[in-house]
Specification:
heterodimer; A: mainly alpha; Cytochrome Bc1 Complex, Chain D, domain 2; three-stranded mixed β-sheet; two-stranded antiparallel sheet; 11 helices; 7 strands; 7% strand; globular; B: mainly beta; Immunoglobulin-like; three-stranded antiparallel β-sheet
Chain lengths: 254, 109
């Protein structure tokens, strides 16, 4: 029997999910016409550089790579990609796809130093590209329901918590002001369907971890360390909020 | 050969003998202009791809000296006439640190 407190929390989380569902639009819908053209043209799209590098790292049956021995084709992992972040018994916290790539790489003796390592991003881009069109499929793993729900609630709490010198919470822009102008940008609902992203202002690729940290910087709050549990909780909440939207694969952002 | 800098070469247009297509080459090189500073205020040394050579079937068809205004990732598009029987297009590059690389793509008719 769930306690009253957790039921109330769960109800609040559901309520918070509502605006995200009403404005179910991918971030690509907010790209300028030029960027959208670039996004849709695979021969010019810079994210393809990382996807191709990912394919090379992965390897093929005739050409040895880092991943092909255990995982066969990258296409077979389509469904697994949609299930992150998930609860890790080993780490006792949520892990996302990049965490999993890092863990795999460590086990197989590759030296990838961080979540934003080019090779990690390349593999993430490849896997997300293959999962294009699928929807997020987030469920607690059996036996860890309580931890999963607690993490989701913590994510919802973080989404509505005012932070930083700007004293803003995520929902002030990404729920209440969707479609309005914020300086040169149009505010999107913040659905994380297009990660990893190639952000023009970074002149490079970045994972959702980096993007969320950039949000903390944007509202002038203390920036959590890469891989912090709070970032994973927020990612889980955002992906549950975006359930039903197709994954766009690696995408361009301004 | 540099393994850490992914490059790619794509073609747009009809791959037919005599047709003019566009070849699109890009490289995820950091292209540090030499004007920027790091978090401690130290200048980041210039490191850009300064020379690009394009060979079609081992014949030099384009040589470019790039400057610091090039974007990262570098993107270079140029027209190309498809030779009879297709062939091999090679893009060779060199940067300020002395790294060199090559991107090869076959023109298959």
């Amino acid at each position: 029997m769930p306690s009253i407190r957790s039921s109330v929390q769960w109800f609040c989380t559901l309520w918070l999910l509502l605006p995200g569902l009403l404005f179910a639009q991918s971030g690509n819908a907010f790209l300028s016409p030029d960027l959208l053209q670039l996004q849709n043209d695979a021969s010019r799209n810079p994210t393809q550089l990382w996807v191709e590098q990912g394919l090379e790292i992965w390897g093929t049956p005739d050409k040895k790579g880092a991943c092909v021995d255990c995982h066969k084709s990258a296409n077979q992992l389509q469904n697994q990609v949609t299930q992150f972040p998930k609860w890790s018994v080993e780490k006792q916290q949520l892990i996302n796809l990049e965490d999993q790539i890092l863990a795999c790489a460590k086990r197989s003796g590759q030296d990838y130093k961080s979540l934003e390592h080019p090779q990690v991003l390349a593999l993430s881009a490849l896997l997300h590209q293959n999962a294009t069109g699928k929807t997020f499929n987030l469920k607690p793993s059996p036996g860890h329901e309580a931890q999963w729900h607690a993490a989701l609630n913590a994510g919802a709490q973080e989404f509505t918590q005012r932070i930083g010198r700007m004293n803003l919470a995520c929902n002030h822009c990404h729920d209440q002001n969707i479609g309005k102008q914020m300086r040169a940008d149009v505010i999107s609902p913040g659905h994380p369907t297009g990660f990893p992203i190639f952000k023009m202002s970074w002149q490079g690729m970045g994972s959702i971890d980096r993007r969320l940290r950039a949000c903390y910087s944007g509202v002038q709050a203390e920036i959590p360390a890469p891989g912090s549990p709070v970032l994973r909780q927020l990612e889980l909440f955002l992906k549950v909020r975006a359930q039903g939207l197709p994954i766009d694969g690696p995408s361009l952002r301004r | 050969m540099s393994k850490n800098i992914p490059t790619r070469l794509a073609f747009a247009g009809p791959l037919k003998e005599g047709a003019t297509i566009e070849a699109r080459w890009s490289a995820a090189h950091p292209m540090d202009s030499g004007f920027r500073v790091d978090d401690s205020g130290n200048k980041i040394a210039r490191n850009i791809i300064h020379t690009v050579k394009v060979l079609l079937n081992d014949r030099l068809i384009l040589e470019a000296d790039l400057g610091t205004a090039m974007t990262s990732p570098v993107y270079l598009a140029f027209p190309l006439q498809v030779p009879a029987g297709g062939g091999v297009l090679r893009v060779l590059w060199q940067d300020d640190r002395g790294q060199v690389g090559e991107t090869v793509q076959r023109l298959i008719l």
